[in-house]
Amino acid sequence: RPPAAAAPTVKIAPSKSHHKTRSSLLGISSGPQSPYFPLSGGSFSSPSPQPGVVPPGGYHDRQGLPTTPAVSAGSKKSRKMYMPNSTWTWAFMLITIFQCLILMALEAYIFGQFQASLTLRRLPEEGADGQDPRAPSRTIPTWLAIFIFGFIYQIGLVWDALRLKNTIQVIGVCLYNLGMMIYTAVEMEQVSEAVAALDNGVEKGTYPKLRPFLIAAPCVLALGTVLLSFVAWKLYNEFAWTIYKHISADLRLKRRYLVYQIYIALLKFDFFFFLGFTVQFLVIVSETPDAERYITIAALPITVVLLILAGIIVRKEWGWAHILIILVYFAASAYFIFKLVRMWDASPSRLTDYKPARNSLTTFAVLTLLLMLVTITVACMCMANFGKGLRPHIQKRKVPDADEIAYTNKYGEDTEYAGTAHPLGPVPNRMTID
Q: What is the pTM of this model?
């Protein structure tokens, strides 16, 4: 038989699809790099994900299965020092810095002119009443040191408030500025009294040369207070959403968090005013009994330690330790009342000792006493909020420890937290819209 003819080759032209490729409705790509991986053992033929490959935020994340933490540029930046990131945060920081530079320049000029005009060699080492006639010359250097520290400390407070988005501390900075304005207004009279007390120890016409700069300082602070208050109002609206996301819409929990923020801010301001009073007392008031002077010196480091402990105790909600801190506040209030009485109702010799800085010491003592009374009140309110679900929201650690889990299980009805101690941290118990 003749060989069969080969079958004709039919070439089929590839059909062109009229459908366009579109992305997944779930918002993820369908390629090999797709973040979707079904669980192993299912009916799907796709391979199960390898540990360390599955990105977070999907099904595995919700089920507590291992995922790969996403390392983004933002997480790297978060390790660096905080910098303002909006118009109003930059405005608040820059107003504070410019105000600090202007006032430090004014105070440096006042200090330089005052020191250049001193002629202490004309004064005896001991006056007729047994007092040191040169004591008033130490007032200006002491005030300058307090001003420098005060404004540098204010910059630190502003940076801390913006970093934490703490609206209470932002408002506190405005009140702090107001307190410094009162202090600079008192300084004018104190310089006048110091120049008059030195008499022959200072050149004639010194105070008239310093007076314009002494007037300018509170005026600059008044303008700065107005500008800071306006920007603080803008920041209040800007930070409100951040607090809402952190605490949720629970009004009771928001009130407790507000009380906690007020207390922490008060501790930071208490430190400056107590330190300012103590430094002035040690430097300017020379004729002080040794026992009283040593107690005052020892109070400086003890105060710093106690204020740090107070912040830790209220965060941990240690009731017995918090009661001891409140008792310390009462003791500090009694100390400032005692100092006020000694400055204004003591023997004539003691009144002479306090005279070089009595007005400024009184200003600091009154402001510190008022702050201490407010701190005691807010501390009692914080203690009333212990055990009501606030602690998991104010812990610095992102992963809760066993103690926090036990606390949440006991007081969980008032919180948004319902997770377990696994590396993913808290698992939300409802959908949140960011």
A: 0.66
